[in-house]
Amino acid sequence: MSEIAGERLAATRPATRRNPLGAQVRAWFKGARAAEILASFARRAVVPILLIALWQLAASREWVDRAALESPAQVWATFVELASTGEILVHIGTSLRRVLYGLAIGGTLAVFMGVVSGLSRVGEEAIDPPLQMIRAMPSLGMAPLLVIWLGIDEGVKVGLVAIGVVFPLYINLYKGIRGIDRRYAELAQICGASRRELLTRVILPGALPSALVGLRLSLGIAWLSLVIGEGINAQGGIGYLVAQGRNALQTDWIILGLILYAILGLAMEALVRLLEWRLLPWNRSFLR
Question: What CATH number has the domain bearing residue 240?
Answer without folding.
Answer: 1.10.3720.10
